[in-house]
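Weekly structure sync, notes
Attendees: PL, DS, HV (note-taker this week)

Item 1: AsmA-like C-terminal domain-containing protein
DS walked through the input record. Source organism listed as Bdellovibrio bacteriovorus. Sequence as pasted into the shared doc:
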Amino acid sequence: MDSRRRLSDRHLIAEQPGMTILLTGLILAFLLGYTTKSLLSPSRLAARIEKAASHIHKDVKVSFGSAYVSLSNGILPRFAVIITNVRMESAQTCWASPVMEIDELRLPLSFLNLIQGKAPVRVVEANSVNLILREDFKNCDPTDPEQIPASRPRPAVMLSPSEQSQKYRNDVRGVSVGTLKITSAKHPQYSTELMNFAVKVKSFEPKVIEVTAKTHLMKDSQVGDYLSHANLYLQYKESPEAAVQAHFFGNWREGHYSVIANYTLGDQLLAVETDLKHIPLSQILAILQKYQLASRDLNGRQVWMSSKARMVGPVDEIRTLPLEIRDLRMEGDLGEMHVEKINISSIEPLKYEPIQIDVKKLDIEKLLVLLNRSKQTSILGHLGSFTGRAEVVSDQKMRMSGEHAGLEFVFSNKGQRELQVIESMVGDIALDQDQWSFQIKRVEPRGGVFVGDLSLRADRDFKTVAVKTHIDELQLALPVQKLMTNGGEIGLMSLDGDLRFGEGKVQSLKGLLRLNSMDVEGVALGKTRASFDWSKGEVLLNAQVQSMKVSPNSPTAEVLRPVTLNSWWHEGVLNLTGLTGQLGAKSSKEFSWKGFQAQASRTGKLSTEGSWDEGARLKGHVQVKDGRIQRRWQIQGTRELPQFVEEKARR
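Item 1 (cont.): predicted structure, written out as tokens:
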């Protein structure tokens, strides 16, 4: 019986082999788990973090929402301390009174480092960091006793013993931030957003620290961030001398840019090099206009720019440092402009050596678009293009010489249009002390003739303009002649004239026009001489015509036949000689003629005066005299349908 009982007791759980070890393990696990939970409880962890934060800096106040231990990062196991809603702020104006807000701060822990006697935290991670600068940076004097760290008393309580602090002070090797946004409260337009911001310690002895980030600092909000990637790289090295190297590069729309800067801390020497390739000018202007560095009247659409630049000198003299710009190019629908080199001796005040600019097929209309100007006159068609060379000495002095091609003048008559194209126009343009001067030396009209010169002077804003012409021979293209004369032609002309504009209005006009011959709608004019003048807001033209022949089928014959004598017409043709008189025009709708008279035969004489107003209503009179015959008519009706009412007839 006893033997059978002892045999069955062997099957009890407590009597199984290894049970003692299992129970011991469970007890130890319980004790370790409870101890770990006690040590890593949120309240205890928060207390430790608060104590550590109090020793960051006497002028920095730190607060946070909660702290706890995380055992995983997504599906991957990782032991880390998580601190949420962190806020760090300081009233120190030397630092621009910053406020830093962090949504979640992660401190991954390494047990292996802890076992080896190393710091358990090697990397600091954050999701989103918002840094707000509430004030402008204040230039604090480092010699101020209040700014000297040695003069401040050491804190009574240290986070760790001094030797332990010395041991762990360089063990954090990296900081990683998903999104870092830097904003100035006083200058919100200068905000900067950095993505994938990372700080890595490459070496402690000598110290080498690298910073990398991505940004869309120069993004175009209209087309999307993907067209304006930017990369930032910073490196700090202590050997052979303390220096910081920065490289900012990326794509800007269809172009690429690169900015490299080197700064040595010892002698405070700064060297900057930039390289822009095919950057849209509209993007550059948008940035400059945002910071009020360029006029908002400029519009750089369909224009691209490329250039290289270099600047070297002490950083505290950056406004007066020399700047060298090389291979500056602007191209696109505007045409091409190239500057081989620009030497700027000082940025503020701006001083530079004379700048030589090569211009090739510069489209004047596109230039007006760039300047946000529009063509104000309907007498010009296409404004053509310019090819030449310009020299800019200062903002008060410049010179330009070259060839203007493709300028179009529009001539219209009775609903039809013809263009007089200027194939080539060679001249010089100069600006000297707010005074523009234009000198045209040679003009080649398509199908026409131009022999002479033309000069123009104006103030900087073209509010006052003076034009002087001396043309020995001028003839328009045949299609233009036929349009303006209704199938006739205009002979060679010569012109000498002076014209002055002020505030968009004619102030003075004086000149002399000579014409060999002209045939207009069946009226043939012989040699003509006309002097023109400006008086009391009216253009006056004193004309002298050697001969005038009116053919029977011309519209003029229908008008003159009722107010002339039949004896003056020979085979349906009216011949007048010695025609003189004065024409006046206050506008395109108001016209007058005074003292017009002509010899109709050896004894016949025709005289007339009259006008039409803005409504095209006619008034005036016509008088004929031949020997004892005198007749007079009143002019009535409209310009399109004139009427003649005879006053009386005498023989």
